[in-house]
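Section 5.1 Outputs to date
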Amino acid sequence: MDQYDWPVPAYSERGAIAPFHVMETMNAAAAHEAAGNTVLHLEVGQPSTAAPTTALEAARNALEHDVLGYTGALGLPALRQRISDWYADRYSLTIDPGRIAVTTGASGSCVLAFLALWDAGSRVGVIEPGYPCYRNDLTTFGVEAVAIPVDSSTGFRPTVAHLENAGPLDGLIIASPSNPTGVVLAEEHLGPILAWARRNQVHVVVDEIYHGLTFGIDPPSALALDPNVVVFNSFSKFFSMTGWRLGWIVAPEPLMPTIERLAQNLTIAAPTISQLAGIGAFDGIDECEANVVRYRRNRDSLLSSLAEAGLDQIAPADGAFYLWVNIESTGISASELCAIWLRELNIAATPGIDFDPVRGERYVRLSVAGSGSDIDEAGRRIVRWMADQ
């Protein structure tokens, strides 16, 4: 009998979510490279540098001397303490390590936080443009993701007026700095939002994965303004450890037993070798700070090139390592433009539909996390291409 020569039961509707288009763009770039082309990668939010030397040393030592068995579901106590120390050193905040859960990347943080906070049928606000997996994860869990569109009129920052226009909400997800806009929420922006949420009994999750990657501005952690918010972060961006799949959550103490039970059942624990490397990463801050200098230099270079090319409608890029570029002047949709740039310029870029399903075809997201030479060359090619149009 043929493998499918029988009535196949219906599959779960929960899996019928939108793809993560960045990953599909990466696949297209990889196929273009496999065909013999050298691609300049501006599509992916991934540092081009390795983990800090101290993290690599810790991992090597673990391979040689550690059994690498399971840890507790909330992570190694030593790592939770180092994360607590990070908040004390960087933000002058006292965070009990008991409020910290180590996760399998910030993606794992999303799963645990969303399941712990909201039931199926809840209404949770998501900012657009914004990271698409918030919306897709919520949809998978049966939670209604309520789009809250922002634009240049508020510097792509959400305001209380935006929230009130969204109707009754059970939750809200915000990010600072934001992917894809690079927008940072200072205390003057974040404070009114958190106060509104308290008044309306709305659970807030704040994505701070790009903290440390800011240029000329030092944003507060949301924990400094409201200890009842749920914050998550990751070793992927500032610490250049994307493939290690290591992140963390800081949550109110009453929520921690729920997060622990979910973690026990869904993942058991984050990878032990990654946790040990994470402990070492905190001794490599100088290397990480040097990367931030490079990102800023790359951002400035590409901003200059885009201005020369006439693509100067760009969201404030005060943090992260992205440029959110309005490309309406080309008369071409973002999806088509990214395909053309890959085919003709060997530049991989991400169309904005990932981050804003309604208005995203007007924008492309460009990452400046790569090498300076690649960013400079990409800028030159875009300038020449625009001049020929």
